[in-house]
Amino acid sequence: MNKEQDLIKDLIAGKEDAYKYIYDHHYQALCTYAYQYVKDVYIAEMIVGDVIFSIWSKHDNLIINSSLRGYLMSAVKNTSINYLIREKKMEIIKSEIQSSMEKNTDVLTYLENSPLTKLIERELDLKIKDTLANMPDLTRRVFELSRFSDMKYHEIAQTLDVSVDTVKYHMKAALSRLRNDLKDYINVLIPFLLILMKKDLF
């Protein structure tokens, strides 16, 4: 069995070192590939992070019949195209919402005081806490030190006695996990705004 087959076997087993290997040896090339589609460095990094997280979260059912690089590039390509399709739809919706809001600035006050808005905010806060609680300990600690304690990567590395690359790996993993777990709440907010657009408030 060659090295790549061993690596794929470790990915299927959900071994963290295998996923760190992907970040160390494939991440930059995959980001460059994603950028060719989305033309945005941050979005490209987000897509690659999401692809790697998706592989990790579904590792029990992972099937790779091609080379690992080929599999990753195909996944990044498909995710990039899906992102562009969603983004085009979102731009249309955002344009409609913005146009409607410009007609009546009172809508902002309404949204801030809406019981449904407050309910969504509370549920979102609980979902974030639940997602953090279910992250691996090191991933959660890296995220909390970065976001809640405002620490730089090198400071986190010193505090946790790990390398800066390890901090970057766990930060990307945490952000991918949050995006994946919170995507349903974005899908809830958009229809909510569209319903309001049909009311007299607009």
TrEMBL record:
Domain spans labelled RNA polymerase sigma factor 70 region 4 type: 127-178
GO biological process, one term: DNA-templated transcription initiation
PANTHER family (alphabetical): RNA POLYMERASE ECF-TYPE SIGMA FACTO, RNA POLYMERASE SIGMA-70 FACTOR ECF SUBFAMILY
Family to which this protein belongs: Belongs to the sigma-70 factor family. ECF subfamily.
Annotated ranges, domain RNA polymerase sigma-70 region: 22-88
Gene Ontology molecular-function annotations: DNA binding; sigma factor activity
Protein name as annotated: RNA polymerase sigma-70 factor
Alphabetical UniProt keywords: Sigma factor, Transcription, Transcription regulation
